[in-house]
Amino acid sequence: MNHGVRFVCSIIALCMLGSCCSMQAQQNQDSYQAMSDKFFDMLQHDKASDAIDYMFATNPNMKKVPDQIDQLKSQFASLGSLMGPYISHSVLVETKLGGVFVYQHYLVAYERQPISIRIKYYKPHETWLCFGLQFDAKLADEIESMSDLKIPLDKK
To answer: What is the pTM of this model?
Structure first.
């Protein structure tokens, strides 16, 4: 009887441990998305500089390129005056590789025109790092070019 109780307790403990580890793995996988969500929340509240600082603070190697970060902040700061207020964002593409790299491409709607924001995440150990962040104001031109490639050619 004593062995039966120990066996049941062992099974319960293993199930609880497995559930905990599974939840932790899921949280770790989703943490890059939480970073993206926070970034866009800051953009929505007109805090582009803080958003960029937040993203790159996750990656200690980014301290080595402060000029690039300052340039990106300056470019993002000009978005409001050029594009109008932030409206919304949606994922165009998300690609995951080997559980250690994620590429997200977003369509970001501003009042005057949409832009494209690309975020790259890398997880060399247990924590996701922002590996790259860029935006492109020529999204409408890219969509036009890609659409024009689909025009059927006359086969006479």
So the answer is: 0.74
